[in-house]
């Protein structure tokens, strides 16, 4: 010991301590880190030895990236008691820390290292003292510097500290007990236990410690919560996702990449991501075309279509939203344009309101947006008044209907869920006299007799029914076949012989599909659907006979 003291005095004479002990090499720009030095200032630490530890701290500080969002530093010293020199929250500048370390006065009593570890665990690394909250997963590192054997137990309390996520480095100077150092330090011990016997080894530990901070594995501290993979970077832990997945805004979870948002998919209606690829979908009642992007629609002929929608209180708000969605599904299979199909919408309850006339919108997108903006009226069910409004106003040229001389079909689609509170017979007959083709769609408590009176002849082709609002979509295919000119029997499309194989297969498929859709319907709807098929077959037979 006497030789060591002489050697230390010689070093002091040669050059200043701070200059000699300051570590060389670039400052390590680490991510967030909470670092607490636990310094032994017991009476066994002689003044020159304590000065060695003081200057050891002074030499480490220049290599740290100190700051409130980077490395926070705290210092405590201990002997028979524990004293906080400055907590983690105290300083954000290296100069202020150096000043506090220079003013440090040793306690010069016993060596209660276990008590110091407990203080570090419960106090120094608390949020109140400046440590980041556990959920932020900021690494917590304690460096214990001691010169002798502890006078209390250290193994159990050190294990508790490590279990709370504190990484412990144990540095022994001169007479330190190696067994105690190993009991305190975190694994692997060869990276966390240092026995310093000379100044050169103090400097060597400082360099190794700085290098360790630069390569710290942030993913090993706490629960990083990365769904796929955690990668330790100089700025802290970063979550990465596997190929085909995107990191979510929370920075931890991963979701299958939505290719539809990252590519020009060109889908007309809807794009759906599927793993590393995507596909286009069409609304119910329309088929995807050969290009894999567009959906078929009514492209032949011109139609002026007015929809009369029941907005009475029996419909209820949530069901009225389903009605609007159903209307937009009809719009999806129409070729809406000023020269093609024009669409108008009228809502009725105790009164009638034109939501938008035939001539207002020129694209399907504009029509659908306007439908979604329609507000529910509630009140009564004046279906007769709505039919009168349709005949007298909705199909007028002032409202956007094309002149009769152009022979553009005029189609009205009446949607209702109950019995009318006024007479419908007069204006239902008047609509047919005016050449308006009327389709009646009933839901729930709609009266079949009224639907048949409203609809054009034959009623089997112009009346549709759904038992509730949630099952309306099965009506789309029937309406498509009726409203779309190229889908109907009389559209002028090429007719195949009904005896050809393709015709038989197609007929079988349509028949089975119709039976499945109507098997659960009440009020004789199965018979009505069979009658509808019979009427279509008769129409087909008549056209074949005329061709002969």
What's a quick, concise take on this entry?
It is built from 19 helices and 18 strands.
Explain how this protein is built.
One of its GO terms (molecular function) is calcium ion binding. This is Matrilin 4. Residues 1-19 form the signal peptide. Keywords: Disulfide bond, EGF-like domain, Glycoprotein, Repeat, Secreted, Signal. Helices cover 36% and strands 19% of the residues. With 548 residues, the chain is an alpha/beta fold. It folds into four domains: 33-213, 3-Layer(aba) Sandwich (Rossmann fold), CATH 3.40.50.410; 218-257, Ribbon (Laminin); 264-298, Laminin (Ribbon); 304-483, Rossmann fold (3-Layer(aba) Sandwich). The chain is rod-shaped.
In CATH, the architecture of the largest domain is 3-Layer(aba) Sandwich
> What is the spatial order of strands in the main beta sheet?
3-2-1-4-5-6
Q: Briefly note the structural class of the backbone.
A: alpha/beta
Give the overall shape, derived from the CA principal axes.
Answer: rod-shaped
- Uncertain stretches of 5 or more adjacent residues: 1-26, 486-500, 517-526
* CATH homologous superfamily (4th level) name of the largest domain: von Willebrand factor, type A domain
Domain tally: 4
Q: Tell me the number of strands.
A: 18
Largest sheet data:
6 strands, mixed
- Rg from C-alpha positions? 42 Å
Number of H/I helices: 19
Residue fraction in strands: 15-25%
Oligomer type: single chain
What portion of residues is helical?
25-40%
Instruction: Estimate the mean pLDDT confidence.
Output: 79
N-C termini distance: 126 Å
CATH class of the largest domain: Alpha Beta
Task: Output the CATH topology of the largest domain.
Answer: Rossmann fold
């Amino acid at each position: 010991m006497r030789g060591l003291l002489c050697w230390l005095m010689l070093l002091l004479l040669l050059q200043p301590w701070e200059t000699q002990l300051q570590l060389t090499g670039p400052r390590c720009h680490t991510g967030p880190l909470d670092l607490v030095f636990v310094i032994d200032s017991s009476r066994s630490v002689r003044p020159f030895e304590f000065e060695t530890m003081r200057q050891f701290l002074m030499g480490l500080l220049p290599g740290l990236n100190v700051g409130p969002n980077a490395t926070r530093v705290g210092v405590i010293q201990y002997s028979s008691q524990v004293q906080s020199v400055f907590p983690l929250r105290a300083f954000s500048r290296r100069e202020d820390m150096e000043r506090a370390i220079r003013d440090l006065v040793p306690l010069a009593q016993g060596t209660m290292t276990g008590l110091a570890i407990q203080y570090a665990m419960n106090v120094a690394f608390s949020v109140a003292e400046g440590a980041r909250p556990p959920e932020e997963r900021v690494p917590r590192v304690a460096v214990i510097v001691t010169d002798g054997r502890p006078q209390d137990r250290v193994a159990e309390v050190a294990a508790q500290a490590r279990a709370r996520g504190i990484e412990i480095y144990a540095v022994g100077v001169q007479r330190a007990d190696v067994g105690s150092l190993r009991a305190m330090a975190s694994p692997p011990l060869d990276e966390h236990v240092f026995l310093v016997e000379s100044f050169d080894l103090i400097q060597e530990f400082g360099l190794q410690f700085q290098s360790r901070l630069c390569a710290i594995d942030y993913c090993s501290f706490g629960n990083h919560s990365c769904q796929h993979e955690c990668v330790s970077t100089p700025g802290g832990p970063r979550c990465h996702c596997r190929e085909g997945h995107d990191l979510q805004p929370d920075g931890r979870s991963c979701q299958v990449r939505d290719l539809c948002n990252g590519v020009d998919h060109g889908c007309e209606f809807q794009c759906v991501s599927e793993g590393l690829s995507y596909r286009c979908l069409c609304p119910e009642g329309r088929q995807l075309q050969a290009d894999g992007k567009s959906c078929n629609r009514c492209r032949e002929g011109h139609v002026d279509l007015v929809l009369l929608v029941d907005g009475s209180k029996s419909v209820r708000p949530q069901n009225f939203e389903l009605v609007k969605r159903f209307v937009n599904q009809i719009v999806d299979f129409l070729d809406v344009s000023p020269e093609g199909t024009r669409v108008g919408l009228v809502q009725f309850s105790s009164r009638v309101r034109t939501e938008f006339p035939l001539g207002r919108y020129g694209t399907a997108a504009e029509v659908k947006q306007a439908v979604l903006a329609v507000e529910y009226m509630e009140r009564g069910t004046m279906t007769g008044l709505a039919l009168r409004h349709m005949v007298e106003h909705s199909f007028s040229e002032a409202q956007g209907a094309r002149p009769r001389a152009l022979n553009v079909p005029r189609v009205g689609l009446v949607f209702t869920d109950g019995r009318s509170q006024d007479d419908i017979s007069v204006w239902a007959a008047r609509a047919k006299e005016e050449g308006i083709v009327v389709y009646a769609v009933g839901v729930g408590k709609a009266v079949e007799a009224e639907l048949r009176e409203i609809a054009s002849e034959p009623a089997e082709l112009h009346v549709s029914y759904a038992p509730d609002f949630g099952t309306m979509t099965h009506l789309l295919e029937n309406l498509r076949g009726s409203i779309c000119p190229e889908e109907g029997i009389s559209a002028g499309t090429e007719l195949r012989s009904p005896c050809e194989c393709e015709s038989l297969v197609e007929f079988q498929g349509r028949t089975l599909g119709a039976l499945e859709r109507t098997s659960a319907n009440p009020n004789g709807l199965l018979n009505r659907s069979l009658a509808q098929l019979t009427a279509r077959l008769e129409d087909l037979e008549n056209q074949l006979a005329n061709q002969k």
